[in-house]
Write a structure and sequence with these properties.
- Keywords: Membrane, Transmembrane, Transmembrane helix.
- The protein has 122 residues and is an all-alpha fold.
- The protein has one domain.
- 77% of the residues lie in helices and 0% in strands.
- It is built from five helices and no strands.
- Helix 1 packs across helix 3.
- It is elongated, with a radius of gyration of 17 Å.
């Protein structure tokens, strides 16, 4: 349940603030959100990564098929892919990595300041 809520939060924040912020500002925001999300590292990585990947791939899909723009075709030809769906998947994969590692960085930064538990009894 917590994973789904964080995934949805990362998705909504990425869609809502993406047009107004650069990618590195979004990375800082995702890192702060990852620091707030006090969970295991894998859960933080995948919640953020999947949320950002869905947002970026969804936006690429929207630009390609819903608006009928020729920009994705031109970009895929420029990159030598010549296949727009592969470009959308690559965009989602890039979003997964950038969002996931940004949130994981914030999560691990938070862990630096948490008190370590003793693993032995006095």
């Amino acid at each position: 349940m917590k994973f789904s809520l964080w995934l949805l939060l990362f998705l909504v924040v990425s869609i809502a603030l993406g047009p107004y912020m650069t990618y590195w500002m979004m990375m800082l925001l995702w890192a702060v959100m990852g620091a707030i999300m006090a969970g295991p590292g894998a859960q933080t990585f995948f919640a953020a990564g999947l949320g950002v990947a869905l947002a970026w791939a969804g936006k690429a899909f929207y630009i390609t098929w819903i608006t009928g723009s020729s920009l994705p075709d031109q970009m895929s030809a420029l990159m030598g892919i010549n296949n727009t769906p592969v470009l959308i998947v690559a965009t989602g994969l890039l979003g997964l990595l950038i969002g996931g590692f940004s949130a994981l960085t914030g999560n691990r930064f938070r862990r630096l300041f948490e008190k370590n538990k003793e693993f032995y009894y006095h």
